[in-house]
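Objective 1b of the project was to move from sequence-level analysis to a structural picture of ligand recognition. The entry below was assembled by the postdoctoral researcher (A.K.) and checked by the PI before modelling. It contains the amino acid sequence of the target and the SMILES of the bound compound, zinc ion.
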Amino acid sequence: MLRDTTKLLGIKDPNITILLVLKHQSHIEIRAKLDYQPPLCPHCHGKMIKYDFQKTSTIPILDVQGMPTLLKLKKRRFQCKDCHKVSVARTSLVKKNCQISEPVLKKITQAHTQKLTNSDIANQLHISVSTVQRKLTQFTFKERYHHLPQVLSWDEFARNKGKLAFIAQDYNTKKIVTILENNRKITIKNYFYKYPRKVREFVKVVTVDMSGSYIPLIKQLFPKAKIVLDRFHIIQHLNRAMMSTRIAIMKRYDKKSLPYRAMKNHWRILHKDSRKLSLKLFYSRTFRQTLTPKEIVHKTLQFSDELRYYYNLYQLLLFHFQQKNTHQFMALIEDNYHLVNHAFKTIFRTFKKYKEYIANALEFPYSNAKLEATNKLIKDIKRQAFGFRNFNNFKTKILIALNIKRERIKLILSRT
Ligand SMILES: [Zn+2]
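Corresponding predicted holo structure:
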């Protein structure tokens, strides 16, 4: 009967015998002893005899009946008849010099692969946050340099104090290839040069954001890769130019005036792809009228010829972009280059400069959208507040959250 009890508690060691179970208000206390026939002396292989019991140690184990449970374990001590050294009985339940039971450690490991904060895990398992954290540092990921994905996505994300970290991901599997502490060219270069040229030549496409700063580096590292500017970022750039233009025009009006309020309150409608505007009527408090979004656009553009010009330009660019008319898209930029304001001129200059890669973006189905989802997850992990002053812990947590479920085998859980 007691044997079954120990099994239920996740205690597989048959040398542990439960002596007493005490149910306290806040927790369950299990008193047990660890005892077995004396083995040979670990020091001299001499014969040992049973000595006394070591001072009771308190070990958190998995909850019993939903209650935090503590195992108060007395461990047998043995003494060698030859060298007189004393040794303590060993158990598979807790590793040497460890205060946490193996089932709990397994639970921590498992919890790390779920989207739980370190403090959530600590609360769930009634252990200290530092224990959870220590476990995190024991995850190590083996870096191997004999394979790179065919389609690679590059991006960066903000880590603490506005520093940017670099992330590369397999476009198809979403698996993270690497996370680097900063996005400096030398850091990225040093990392990818660990791969032999043959492996790097396997990369056929690299998707990257609009900044363009990585382009020379990509050409150098991946001689056979096509560079694809990310569609999401191209549209985002257009959007931002339209946003600052609309705001600049709007600010020329009095804040209480109808043009100002229309441009301000209905900005979403003005930025939306005009082909996707809904036909539903709704009450606009700005116009004090029931209108469709299309009518709102029409009415607002009547206030300013300038706004109308940018609106039409923006909508046309969106249209050609989505229709994958690279030629028309670029022609529109050429034609309007000398007519537009600073915001548009800046993005047009970039578009012209990276024309080839924009064309690739229209031609190939790849976008960094998948990486954006990863970045969201990274943000969630960052929001888990603490502990990530250490970049390695942060990186580990991200890798656990994103890679482990996909590739458990590659994970090596080392013990320190
Ligand atoms: Zn001995």
